[in-house]
Structure of Kynureninase:
Amino acid sequence: MTDFQATRAMFDLPDGVTYLDGNSLGPLPAAAPERMARAMRGEWGEMLITGWNKAGWMDQPARLGDRIGRLIGAPEGTTVLGDTLSIKVHQALAAALALRPERRVILSDSGNFPSDLYMAQGLVEQLGRGHELRVVAPEEVEAAIDEDVAVTMITEVDYRTGRRHDMPALIAKAHAAGALAIWDLAHSAGAVDVDVAAADTDFAVGCTYKFLNGGPGAPAFIHVAPRLIDEVQPALSGWLGHADPFAFEPGYRPGPAIARMRVGTPPVLAMAALETALDIWDGVDMTDLRAASLALGDRFIAGVEAACPELELATPREHAQRGSQVSFRHPQGYAVMQALIAQGVIGDFRAPDILRFGITPLYLSEGDIDRAVDVLAAILRDKSWDRPEFHARAAVT
């Protein structure tokens, strides 16, 4: 049984703050500053360039990739870290299209994260071979999968509403139609009970700075199914994806298995911070996490609907259709959220009218949920959100 009081103590959370934005940026693991200092002084400072060998920097992407793989149901040796999520989306999509050269349709949905769609649009233009990015409503994805589709590219949990797709069902439909499936797990890894092997996922990608708490700009990961990895030809053939990076050959030879999905030099300091976050996960059972997340989410929905009737629930009530966030709509959602943040309840806003709240049992309790409901209700009751400073848009919402 997971001890969530113990995991809460492993984070450095500011006093007086109720943090409901782990779906956007996880909080600081308490052990991270010391680990970062050790990496900087004891490794970079003392070892200098020998740290690549002595401190194991070169092995970080694969070693930490396997630790993330355990959280998403991926077999050992099929997940690797490095670069950004957009880069990993590009890698997966280019590889999938190359494996289905006779097909031209990339199928996605309007709830997908825009950056994924941007990467697909750019790749279509770059290839110049008549590919089409076909975008349908989330609930229409299954019906839209046909024999024209080369690959489905879906984010499992909608970043705005928290709606969760049925990954196994959509993968089965894609495979039956001869298509491949890419899944973006940015709002799934560390949030819900994912099993990419059981679902027979072809490619999975995700970031580590949200529910995995790796820190701002922490590296992304990519998983490739073992049955495909030796067929995949990397579109981004970076030096660390080479079979022998330090041979410095003029021509590219892809590395073995998942190593070929590496691109650039590992972000050593960022991975040091991520390592401390993954230490916390060693004591977490994902079944316990999911049950606690749903219970806290139900409590938040019930509390807000009872106290804030002017808000409209945007997140599915059904557990199977919900990720680990709860979203509500309000015409002045941005100002309401700024007023909440000013009182120490931190969520975030997504256009045009979504207030998002991440439900993260690693460090949230029932008391935190109840405080958030009370503060939100008071802000709406008193209309204290309607002040000029709360309407002023910042660069990051």
The mean pLDDT is 97. Residues 33-281 form a domain with the Aspartate Aminotransferase; domain 2 fold (CATH 3.40.640.10).
